[in-house]
TrEMBL record:
<dbReference type="InterPro" id="IPR009057">
    <property type="entry name" value="Homeodomain-like_sf"/>
</dbReference>
<dbReference type="GO" id="GO:0043565">
    <property type="term" value="F:sequence-specific DNA binding"/>
</dbReference>
<keyword id="KW-0238">DNA-binding</keyword>
<dbReference type="InterPro" id="IPR020449">
    <property type="entry name" value="Tscrpt_reg_AraC-type_HTH"/>
</dbReference>
<protein>
    <submittedName>
        <fullName>AraC family transcriptional regulator</fullName>
    </submittedName>
</protein>
<keyword id="KW-0805">Transcription regulation</keyword>
<keyword id="KW-0804">Transcription</keyword>
<dbReference type="GO" id="GO:0003700">
    <property type="term" value="F:DNA-binding transcription factor activity"/>
</dbReference>
<dbReference type="InterPro" id="IPR018062">
    <property type="entry name" value="HTH_AraC-typ_CS"/>
</dbReference>
<dbReference type="Pfam" id="PF12833">
    <property type="entry name" value="HTH_18"/>
</dbReference>
<dbReference type="InterPro" id="IPR018060">
    <property type="entry name" value="HTH_AraC"/>
</dbReference>
<feature type="domain" description="HTH araC/xylS-type">
    <location>
        <begin position="217"/>
        <end position="318"/>
    </location>
</feature>
Length: 339
């Protein structure tokens, strides 16, 4: 059976920030939620839970907005994907790669582990409606071997998207005739259909990969997950993915980047993104240094200046002043990981 996740009108819409995640504050993820004041305020979300996933139908007669920033990510590290089917109105999503506007009939993905802002806009009849499913990242990866980024959008035309949407609607509207295991199988079927449709649009990597390609993917994922660990080394990576350090070196040579350069590149680029998006009061330079895997803020500053030709403090000030920094020049391939 469905349940009401939240319902807001003129009497309580100002309370939306404290209650949009449901009675137990466990749905969605942390962020700034707001409802635009107007003559008519009628916002309602109904939910059906299936295993670790939630199917939610959101209807509104006014404009809604939601913002998830780096500070929200640091406080709440939940990793989920939200798969949206736009029924009425539009979704306007601002993300790190630009902006996506989804119209009725479009399919959109947002991810909780990247900053974004989404606006739910009503149509000419002052109506907005979406059906969306919240899927834990580890469940989504069972069906999608490649991460689909926030803002990914496709016109939901054709049999595949229509079938997936129809399955989810049937699950949502089912009064309880289906047994629990059957409903889970239907959800898995919908995710499988969606992953196939996405791959057909050349968004994901080919399904057929060589063993070395799969191992390289495992290596890069392990490095991303453990990037903040100051003890990250070629030995720990090789052990973590179940290969020898010699084979790891072979894979990274094929990739064209030695281990040390790859890690420095990732750490400094993540730090640069963090500096550009977080004000001093939200995250200090020392905190950013530790969070990207440096043991010593002074060493972080030296390496950052070597790569960006300015100190972290100067880079942050330049970004806040909307000044474009110089081109990135990463450390030479012979650089060693030292903390």
């Amino acid at each position: 059976m469905t349940e009401t996740l939240f319902a807001f009108d003129k009497r309580n819409y100002r309370d939306c920030q404290s209650s949009f995640r449901g009675p137990k504050n466990q749905e969605y993820y942390l962020g700034d939620y707001s409802i635009e004041a107007g003559n008519v305020i009628d916002v309602r979300a109904e939910r059906k839970t299936v295993g670790s996933c939630s199917i939610i139908r959101l209807r509104s007669k006014t404009r809604l907005s939601f913002r998830r920033s780096w500070s929200h990510l640091r406080e709440d590290g939940i990793d989920v994907a939200v798969l949206w089917f736009v029924k009425r109105g539009r979704l306007s999503i601002s993300h790190q790669r630009g902006q996506t506007v989804a119209k009725p009939g479009d399919f959109v993905v947002t991810r909780s582990m990247t900053p974004f802002t989404v606006e739910c806009l009503t149509d000419e009849m002052s109506e907005h409606e979406v059906l969306h499913m919240i899927v834990p990242a580890h469940v989504f990866r069972r069906f999608m071997s490649h991460d689909v980024p926030t803002g990914f959008s496709l016109p939901a035309q054709g049999r595949a998207f229509a079938l997936a949407e129809r399955i989810l609607i049937d699950i949502f509207e089912d009064p309880g005739r289906f047994e629990e295991h059957a409903v889970q199988l239907l959800v898995d079927s919908a995710l499988s259909v969606l992953s196939t449709a996405i791959r057909q649009h050349d968004v994901a990597v080919p399904v057929r990969q060589t063993i070395s390609e799969r191992r390289l993917q495992d290596v890069l994922k392990f490095i991303d997950v453990h990037l903040s660990d100051p003890k990250l080394s070629s030995t720990s990576v090789a052990t973590g993915v179940g290969i020898s350090t010699r084979y790891l070196s072979f894979l990274l040579n094929q990739h064209g980047t030695p281990f040390s350069t790859l890690v420095w590149d990732k750490r400094l680029k993540v730090a640069a993104q963090w500096l550009a998006s977080a004000r001093p009061g939200e995250a200090s330079i020392s905190e950013i240094a530790y969070r990207v895997g440096f043991k010593c803020p002074a060493h972080f500053s030296r390496m950052f200046k070597r790569g960006f030709q300015m100190s972290p403090r100067q880079y942050r000030a330049a970004k806040l002043a909307a000044v474009t920094p110089p081109p990135v020049q990463m450390p030479e391939s012979g650089a060693q990981l030292q903390h």
